[in-house]
Amino acid sequence: MATVTQFAERKNFTQADETRPFAKGRLDVVNVGGHTIGRAVFEPGWKWSECVKPIAKTESCQAAHLGYVISGRMTVVTDDGKTLDFGPGDAMSLPPGHDAWIVGNEPCVVVDFVGFENYAKRT
């Protein structure tokens, strides 16, 4: 069953509740309507296994993602070997267990509605 939003609220990523920097990128997080939404900016050369793995301390990304790619290109490889390429306008659903990297020379901007609550969160 889907979680229902209980109240109206507006927030803007330019004034995020939290910004989490990591190598070659950052995550802006807003908590709105009782939900956490993240906007990530991944710079050219970013790769999860090099830039976020040291923070997560897991062999692959263990966050599930339900998101939308605004700009740039990203390749994802799941732990079971499936490869997916994402670009502007693509919606994505990814289960835990994957690596990802940026393709090309343009930053990749992704809005995620599920998986960024604890993503790149330093403990």
Automatic annotation (TrEMBL):
Gene3D superfamilies: Jelly Rolls. InterPro entries: Cupin_2 (IPR013096), RmlC-like_jellyroll (IPR014710), RmlC_Cupin_sf (IPR011051). Residues 65-113 form the Cupin type-2 domain. It comes from the Bacteria. Pfam families: Cupin_2 (PF07883). SUPFAM superfamilies: RmlC-like cupins (SSF51182). This is Cupin. It comes from Vulcanimicrobium alpinum. The lineage of its organism: Bacteria, Bacillati, Vulcanimicrobiota, Vulcanimicrobiia, Vulcanimicrobiales.
